[in-house]
Design brief:
This protein is 0% helix and 56% strand. The protein is an all-beta fold. It has a domain of 136 residues: Neuraminidase.
Length: 356
């Protein structure tokens, strides 16, 4: 049942004796699917009208990322350590079980933190951090016609990438990297347009504090929006920029100055409304805005005031417009559990002008 502010109450996903971490979510045929880590194993369940399904083992691994291709197939990328090295793997869900893992990184370095998105033609686009060169470098991979190809992004040192694809199949990747001259992390981005990478932009460009954990989202109109966690006056705030034809907009605050914020996630509904959720103390907060340039943010909402130890979160929006949020949280005297809540859709009001 929805609360007065259109948010549901917190609902536990599963009650397990093992800590649950690193949730990833996606919508398949209007159902919410989730993959998460317990110990060294990835598990999968989905939400129906009758509740959450019995979890199914996916593979041994960590840091799962999900994408759904236009044919409704669910794909999962993850990292796993084997024989002293970490590689990125790909599996897909048949509706009855998961495929065997396929290595897609194939390097002598450590490959970690995969992110993945599907385009309108069914290709998968991925990015991860790889240390083969002696430092972490962002690597881009593409799966098309059943085969993976990958290569480092030029001038792309860094880690913790996020990736999004526009309807025109432009690929945008954002990541964090520590600068040698300041010792601070900044958020960078590069775009792949017609198979050519742009030179990376420093989107945050702030020498006085760390800018970390970027998250990207695109909408149906092709707008690309980026949020991240930025250090300011001894706390972290949530910042935002959108991609313009001549580069990224000036960063702007999403959260209130002075509040210590973390774990921001962004998603777009079918009308192009951008929605951001983040943790602020024990509170989960939300803001939305249209995707157009310089659009105003709607008022901040409190989604939940019962998030004791939220540090990891995943969010997506269903075709009906509901915002679905999953996060790991502490519970008294028990293992770390996954919780779920949702918000009713936010839609633009249509304006009808009188005739004559």
């Amino acid at each position: 049942m929805m609360a007065d502010n259109a948010w549901s109450t917190n609902q536990p996903v599963l009650d397990t004796p093992v800590d649950s971490h690193q949730p990833a979510v996606a919508i398949v045929a209007s159902n919410l699917h989730a993959v998460w880590k317990q110990d060294r194993t990835l598990w999968h369940a989905w939400l129906t009208e009758d509740g959450w399904s019995t979890p199914i083992k996916v593979a041994i691994g960590e840091h799962p990322a999900l994408a759904v291709t236009p044919d409704g197939a669910l794909h999962c990328l993850f990292a796993n350590w084997l024989l002293g090295n970490a590689e990125v793997y790909h599996v897909h869900w048949s509706g009855a079980g998961w495929s065997l893992p396929e290595v897609i990184s194939h390097t002598s370095g450590v490959s970690m933190y995969p992110t993945v998105a599907a385009d309108a033609d069914g290709a998968l686009h991925a990015a991860w951090a790889d240390t083969t060169s002696g430092r972490a470098v962002i690597t881009y991979g593409r799966w098309e016609d059943g085969a993976w190809e990958n290569a480092p992004i030029p001038s792309g040192p860094g880690t913790r990438p996020s990736l999004a694809v526009t309807p025109e199949r432009d690929v945008i990747v954002a990541w964090q990297n520590r600068l040698i001259d300041t010792g601070r992390f900044d958020v960078f981005s590069a775009s792949l347009i017609e198979d050519r990478w742009s030179f990376p932009d420093n989107v945050s460009d702030r020498a006085q504090g760390h800018s970390i954990y970027p998250q990207l989202a695109t909408n149906r109109a092709g707008a690309c929006h980026l949020v991240w966690q930025e250090e300011y006056q001894g706390a972290f705030r949530i910042r935002h920029a959108d991609r313009r034809p001549n580069g990224w907009s000036e960063p702007a605050d999403v959260s209130q100055v002075g509040a210590d914020c973390r774990a921001a996630r962004i998603a777009a509904n079918r009308q192009g409304m951008m929605q951001v959720v983040w943790a602020e103390g024990q509170t989960l907060k939300h803001r939305a805005r249209p995707g157009e340039y310089d659009a105003a943010w709607l008022d901040e909402e409190i989604a939940s005031e019962a998030c004791l130890g939220l540090a990891e979160m995943a969010a997506t929006i269903s075709p009906a417009g509901d915002l679905q949020v999953l996060w790991g949280d502490c519970t008294p005297n028990s293992a770390r559990r996954l919780f779920h809540l949702r918000r009713q859709g936010i839609f633009k009001h249509k304006v009808f002008l009188p005739l004559g």
